[in-house]
Amino acid sequence: MRVYVVWAFVVLFLAMAVGSVWADANLLANGDFEDPFINQPWAYIAPGSSIPGWTASGSGVVLNNTFGQPAAYSGVQSVELNYYGPAGLWQDIATTPGQTYELTFAMAGQYNTGPSTKGMEIRWENALAGTVTWDQYQSGGAWELHSLMLTATGPTARLEFWGLVEGDGGPYVDAASLNAVPEPSTFISLPVLLIGTVGLALRRRK
What pTM was computed for the model? Predict the structure, then answer.
């Protein structure tokens, strides 16, 4: 009886470990914008210029360290998708055609500057995938978390965050993560495979 209990725990542990690997495999490089670390309040990233993993577009973006409120959601730095006009930040990701991915990110905006409601588009494979807003009064000035399901159609997909604010005071983004969503068959087949292996081992033991 003890053998069955031990093997049951082994199956449970391995299934949880596999699920954890799926959950932790962030496909985005530098999703919290901590690289490069800037030893100053903010730094302008011009259109066409890059930081590790990302390239700026539109009017260019601002890498925030101690500038503006609220402070970064993750680490000490975030990005403002604005430099006196609409701006974006994009990254190309290796993908599997037909695979669904979950995008999660934190959004806020430059407090008491520009419109109180900031808009941002999420673009996937050069098409609009969703639009989100942040209101400094409704949010209480705090970061808000968002998630979006995206499906790849080719071996490479471009993800772009695009700020919609005209003039100064744009949206902030931080803690961006893109994770493959495992197919239901993955969680079904793994326990079945493990249980079959356990059963075979027990029969041999007898």
Answer: 0.81
CATH code, domain carrying 96 = 2.60.120.260
Long-range contacts of 123-131 (CB under 8 A, 24+ apart): 123/88, 123/90, 123/158, 123/159, 123/160, 123/161, 123/162, 124/150, 124/157, 124/158, 124/159, 124/160, 125/152, 125/153, 125/154, 125/157, 125/158, 126/158, 131/164
Number of domains in the chain: 1
SS3 letters across the chain? CHHHHHHHHHHHHHHHHHHHHHHHCCCCCCCCCCCCCCCCCEEEECCCCEECCEEEEECCEEEECCCCCCCCCCCCCEEECECCCEEEEEEEEECCCCCEEEEEEEEEECCCCCCCEEEEEEEECCEEEEEEEEECCCCCCCCEEEEEEEECCCCEEEEEEEECCCCCCCEEEEEEEEEECCCHHHHHHHHHHHHHHHHHHHHHHC
pLDDT digits (tens, 9 = 90+) for 91-133: 999 999 999 999 999 999 999 999 999 999 999 999 999 999 9
What single letter denotes the amino acid at residue 179? Answer: N
